[in-house]
Each structure stands twice: as C-alpha cells, then as structure tokens.
Amino acid sequence: MRVVVTRVQLQATVWAQAMVENGYQVLMLPLIDIAALPDTKALTQAWQEWPTYHAVMFVSASAVHYFFASKPAITPYPYTKYAIKTRVWVTGPGTRSAVLAQGILAQQIDAPELTHQQFDSEALWQQVHHTIHRGDRVLIVRGAKRSPDSGAARSQGRDWLAQQVQALGAQVQCVAAYVRQIPQWSMSQCEQARQAASDGSVWLLGSVEAVGNLQTLLWQQNWTQAQAVVTHPRIASAARSLGFGKVTSSAACLSAVLTSVECLS
User: Which of 47, 116, 199, 245 has its CA 20 to 30 A from that of 127?
Assistant: First the structure.
C-alpha cells in the first residue's frame, strides 16, 4: 500500500520515514507551503515582552521553528528565572516535541494529555482555563495566510481559544511567525496525485486548509475512490465534502495514524 504524506516539509520527513519503516510506500505531496516572514519586527517585539505573558501558545511545530529562529541574539528568554514563569501552551505532541527541542522545560508546558483522543484548542483549553485571571496576557504564535489574489499575508486561526481567554478578562495578542500558502505542484506531482486518488493509496490529511488546497490544485478530480486518514472531525467533514469515498478518523499522534493506516491495509 502507498501512503500520501501531505504535511509541511518540516514534519513530513519524520512521518514518511515512519511509514517506510512499517513497510509502506510513500508519496510526499505537501498541501501547505510555508516560508519565513520578510519582516520580523513583530516577532522581535514579542521576544522582548516574553516575561510579561502569562502564556505563549504555539499552534504548530512550524510556529515553534520560525519563532525561535527569529530570537534576537541578545535576548535570553525564555530561559531566565523571570521568563520561566511564562507557561507554554501547545495542542499536540508534535508541537510539544518541537518546544522541548528548543530547551523549554517540560514542567513549563501545558498540553492535552497524551491519552486524549483529540489534540486541538478545545482539548488544550480544558487543561489551562483554570489558570487564567483577569488582566493576564496571552500570546498566540501562528501563521499568516498569503492571499492568492494580492499576495499579501494576513494572520488567522485559533480565534476560538482567543475568545475563551478574552471572556475571562485576559488580553490576547497574536503574532505571525511564518507564511502559509498553497504549494506550486509540478505537472508530475499533479499526475501522481490523480493516480493516488484512485489506486488505493491512503491520504494523510492534517488540516482543513490542506483539504481546501487539494481541491484548488486538482479542482476537477473525482475523489469517490480515494481514502484518507484524518486527525480531526472538521477535517473529516472537509474530506467528505470534497468527495473522498472513505474517511477514517485518528488521533493526531503518529502511532495512532499508523494504526489507522494498518486498518485500511
């Protein structure tokens, strides 16, 4: 069986290697392209204010990578005894691993339990809502989406969690650490994707945005013979709306996704 890995390049290699080690053929077709921001002034400001935040939330491993890549050389945060009081919020194990790799202490991180069936903002909120007090400041580090029409980047995402924080009287600031955009597939990649839509390949779909980009890239494709493993109910709904004939839901961790792929073998 062939597995189509659609994650961004920073994470795709790990997932592809795991699939190969478990005996699967792998086709890597990223559905979201990410790049650094041309202007990092806002990120520099966020670093300077790190100790003033009750928590810094990273929405993805990519957010961690690009945020820490922008850290000014003269800024010791978040490792000093003052800045370590700032909590670090993540929604899943991949992002948690990325944060740990940057030297953040495990006891500084808040995340859904690894046994939790869902890794998302709602699951994270169950873990952290009781720690929020009026006047607290929370920073959300996320991506900006580049408009296909104008080319401009606009920050978006995680509005639900921001609303919950604000409802408790706390302040929310959002900063974009990178730009997300639709990838530019070659003719060969488009042909490989069309073949994978009907030859029994299993697509790994990790976001609603990825499904939307797939529809844009292959807007005339019939997906009724395609099958996918998805990591959230909202992604499942998007995949079914696109026309995927078989959609299997899984927890977002790699081991759970592997189990779901095995069930389709």
Answer: 47
**pTM for this prediction:** 0.83
Residue 173, C-beta contacts closer than 8 angstroms, at least 6 positions apart: 46, 137, 138, 139, 140
**Cα distances (Å, whole numbers) of residue 130 to 20, 58, 126:** 42, 19, 8
* CATH architecture group of domain 2-32+184-264: 3-Layer(aba) Sandwich (3.40)
Find out whether the peptide bond into 183 is cis, omega within 30 degrees of 0: no
Q: Which CATH number among 3.20.20.150, 3.20.20.70, 3.40.50.10090, 3.60.140.10 corresponds to the domain 35-181?
A: 3.40.50.10090
Q: pLDDT value at position 130?
A: 95
For the chain (265 residues), the mean pLDDT of every run of 10, in chain order, is: 90 90 95 91 95 95 94 83 89 91 94 75 92 96 68 53 95 94 94 96 94 95 97 94 96 87 88
pLDDT reported for residue 81: 78
Ramachandran area for residue 103 (φ above 0: left; ψ -120 to 50: alpha; else beta): left
The answer to whether 114 and 90 are in contact (CB under 8 A) is no
Q: What is the pLDDT of residue 264?
A: 87
Residue 148 token pair: 């296909």
Phi, psi of 240 (to 5 degrees): -65, -40
217 CB neighbour count, 10 Å cutoff: 17
Q: How many alpha carbons fall within 13 Å on the CB side of residue 202?
A: 23
